[in-house]
Write a structure and sequence with these properties.
The chain is an alpha/beta fold. The protein has three domains: 176 residues, P-loop containing nucleotide triphosphate hydrolases (Rossmann fold); 84 residues, Helicase, Ruva Protein, domain 3 (Orthogonal Bundle), CATH 1.10.8; 102 residues, Arc Repressor Mutant, subunit A. It is 50% helix and 11% strand. It is built from 17 helices and seven strands. The strands form two sheets. A five-stranded parallel sheet has the order 2-3-4-1-5, sandwiched between helices. Strand 6 and strand 7 form a beta hairpin. The two termini are 46 Å apart.
Length: 415
């Protein structure tokens, strides 16, 4: 019986109308054949990099703009085209792409570059263990093994600098003076518009020889991007006419984020497919919006510092006890009791007030200052996420699992 039931489920989904022709087209990692509304940036980058094809060293480039403005996809598009033309003209060019959100130390960046050439050099640097000076010496050796141009793309470079400082940039921007055969240039990509404030002036002067700025997309531009991708991603006539404009409008509210627009369109299609719906409708887009926001909120909560997590659970308990909105003093009282319960040294009430403001900025809670007339002003704290969701996240957190056994009496004693 169970086998027949499972078989029928898979048969049902197998024979449901297909929505996606190629879902990968809607992923952030996909590089399309055309990039709408980025011609100016493509032209600028091509102008900066064209000296390679003449045998000259191109300038270093600093590319910046907010998340979802097409920086990474444009760089990949331009460097892939550069590789194609350089192969045609027998100009040796290597493009090395490093994601500094993952490869976030000087050692690992240098090791990644050396290991790019391991097939040619036979050298492989372990992820830990060598002195950094030795890794840098090996990098110079493998890069300079023959005449070539090496373009190193450091994506999310701001994450690397904030964590590990700018020593690696200082080395890489000056490496050409130590090479005989090869020439190196750097393309740095940053989401942080204030990123340059973190750089030593010596590094800044050599890295920012050229700058390319990516402004946010507006709703019309996002619609064009989605329409172009939708042609390859979906089967014909499966998208209602309002779906793409709605995805574009919602993403335009998020600072013109094309990644958000693509995620909305993809998740809308996934929800429609799961439902066995013949078409993707605006209802599916609203459901996708809700799901993405929930997923984002869960990720934010998972990465909160320990005290912020305990503070959030204090607000959850107050909510379950029907005591919200609460003021800072009420929340602090429960927070201190929870700290005692898990043997954690509590922070001061002033510091907890700061953490409440941080949770408010993240959208997890709502902390509004209200006037109580002659009694002065107070902060009213409410929860923006269901207690069940918070508990579900904490269920998988070894530091906080024990909190799930805590209940609160009306007299606010923890049981």
């Amino acid at each position: 019986m169970e086998e027949n039931y499972l078989g029928s489920i898979f048969e049902k989904y197998l024979h449901a109308r297909k929505i996606f022709k190629n879902k990968e087209v809607l992923r952030h990692s996909y590089t399309p054949k055309e990039l709408p509304h980025r011609r100016e940036q493509i032209e600028n980058l091509a102008h900066i990099l064209v000296p390679v094809l003449r045998g000259e060293t191109p300038s270093n480039v600093f590319v910046y703009g907010k998340t979802g403005t097409g920086k990474t996809v444009t760089i990949k598009f331009v460097t892939e085209e550069l590789k194609r033309i350089s192969d045609k003209h027998d100009v040796p060019v290597d493009v090395i792409y490093v994601n500094c959100e993952i490869v976030d130390t000087q050692y690992r960046v240098l090791a990644n570059i050396v290991n790019y050439f391991k097939g040619e050099s036979g050298v492989e640097v372990p992820l830990v263990g060598w002195p950094t000076d030795e890794v840098y010496a090996k990098l110079k050796e493998v890069v300079d093994a023959r005449e070539r141009f090496v373009i190193i793309v450091l994506d999310e470079i701001d994450k690397l600098i904030k964590k590990s400082g700018d020593d690696v940039l200082y080395s890489l921007t000056r490496i050409n003076s130590e090479l005989v055969n090869a020439k190196v240039s750097i393309i740095g990509i940053s989401n942080d518009l204030k990123f340059k404030d973190y750089l030593d002036p010596r590094v800044l002067s050599s890295l920012s020889e050229e700058e390319v700025v990516f402004p946010p997309y507006d709703a019309t531009q996002l619609r064009d991007i989605l329409l172009q991708r939708a042609k390859d991603a979906f089967y014909e006539d499966v998208l209602d006419s309002g779906v793409v404009p709605l995805c574009a409008a919602l993403a335009a509210r998020e600072h013109g984020d094309a990644r958000r627009a693509l995620d909305l369109l993809r998740v809308s299609g996934e929800i429609a497919e799961r439902e066995g719906a013949p078409k993707v409708t605006e209802r599916h887009v609203w459901k996708a919006q809700e799901k993405i926001e929930q997923d984002t909120m869960e990720e934010v909560i998972k990465t909160l510092p320990l005290h912020s997590k305990v503070l959030l659970y204090s607000i959850v308990l107050l909510d379950e006890n029907g005591e919200l909105p609460a003021n800072t003093g009420d929340v602090y009282s429960v927070y201190k009791s929870l700290c005692d319960y898990i043997d954690l040294e509590p922070l001061t009430q002033r510091r907890i007030s700061d953490l409440i403001n941080e949770l408010d900025m993240l959208g997890i809670i709502n902390a509004k200052v209200v006037s109580k007339g002659r009694y002065g002003r107070t902060k009213e704290i409410r929860l923006n996420i269901t207690p069940y969701k918070v508990k579900n996240i904490y269920r998988h957190d070894s530091q906080l699992q024990s909190l799930l056994t805590v209940n609160m009496s009306p007299q606010r004693r923890l049981l």
